[in-house]
Design brief:
Elements (H helix, E strand, L loop, with lengths): L1 E8 L4 E8 L4 E5 L5 H11 L2 E6 L5 H4 L2 H8 L3 E2 L6 H5 L1 H8 L18 E4 L2 E7 L8 E5 L4 E5 L2 E2 L2 E2 L9 H12 L7 E4 L5 E2 H7 L7
Parallel strand pairs: 3-4, 4-5, 9-12
Antiparallel strand pairs: 1-2, 2-3, 6-7, 7-8, 8-9, 10-11, 12-13
Length: about 210
């Protein structure tokens, strides 16, 4: 069974999630934006073995510490989609713009595409390409656990911004309604910021995509 623990990091309080297979204690970390000492302390506290980095997209608060973590721990970087290459290239500038610690460019070990899967221990998650917030944004979905890690696509009561370079409002709405909603109303999602919610709750009440 897939388990997870979410740790808000960086001044943007980005939800970094440590996910692991309960059988093997093998773990991946989703969106290590910063505060690596805190994240590594949590990995140790949980008693899991960190083996991979998974990225939903390459904004600084989600990917800022990726290169350092990969280098220091010898971890592969999985994702996002190639559409975010320009955001990866701009990580040093992003960090300077928002007052983050120095951030490094990197080359993912593996790019992700719609319909791919990622595996940690005995747990396999589906990958959906959900552009709109960024062109290369992806989402990780565990049908078994009924959990989706959606980055900045959807929030409790809101949706991702589309006014950054490469953003597209209609693409975001289409991604939510055509790629998230079919996962099921019962699916609980872990957003990039703020509290968890369910797709059913957002379909009913979210002012941006409710009723869709």
């Amino acid at each position: 069974m897939l388990r997870y623990h979410t740790v808000p990091v960086t001044p943007f309080q980005q939800n970094c999630s440590i996910v692991w297979c309960d059988d093997t204690k093998r773990a991946a970390i989703i969106d290590p934006g910063g505060d690596l000492p805190q994240l590594l302390d949590e990995v140790e506290r949980l008693g899991v073995t960190l083996e991979q980095i998974w990225l939903t997209h390459a904004h600084i608060d989600h990917a800022g510490a990726t290169a350092q973590l990969a280098r220091e721990q010898g971890l592969p970087i999985i994702g996002p989609h190639e559409g975010d290459q320009f955001w990866i290239d701009a990580l040093p500038q992003q960090g300077a713009m928002f007052g983050f610690p120095p951030s490094e460019r990197f080359t993912p070990t593996r790019w992700l595409h719609d319909g791919d899967t990622v595996t940690v221990g005995h747990c396999t998650l589906q990958v959906r390409h959900c552009p709109g917030h960024t062109p290369g944004h992806v989402v990780f979905f565990s049908p078994e656990a009924r959990r989706a890690f959606v980055g900045d696509v959807l929030f409790a009561g809101s949706i991702g911004r589309t006014d950054f370079p490469g953003g597209n409002h209609q693409d975001l709405i289409d991604a939510i309604t055509q790629r998230l909603w079919p996962m099921g109303d019962d699916v609980v999602f872990i957003p990039g910021h703020g509290p968890e919610s369910s797709f059913g709750q957002e379909r009913r009440t979210n002012p941006f995509v409710g009723g869709t």
